[in-house]
What does this fold into?
Amino acid sequence: MDKILIVDDSPAARMIARRCLRIAGGDAEEYLEAEHGRAALDVMKHNKVKLVIADLNMPVMDGQTLIRFMRSSPRLHKIPVVVVSSLVNASTADGLKKMGATVVLRKPLNPARMADALESVQTLEGAA
It folds into this structure.
């Protein structure tokens, strides 16, 4: 069962991400949600997730810490992470990719950019 995890402290942002994923062809049998990185790790402890969509600026555990933890985990290190944030510029995008983000998108999110991100994830997975 394919599951996509959306991590953002804003319920509205999670809803927009879910809609953009559906329109862009991000087919999943189930969309899971978490309000911060620590909750996301708990969700991944109990579910096999094929993709994570994560904001950066969240309480409890931010997106950068989530990425660092995932990349250091033998069980989670291969899961692609798409970062979606209003805090992104060219410099931060480069840093996030070096840290292990698969794709970095700037908010506001739309279906076309989500489709491009999903295509990039599939291309990178095919090359691995």
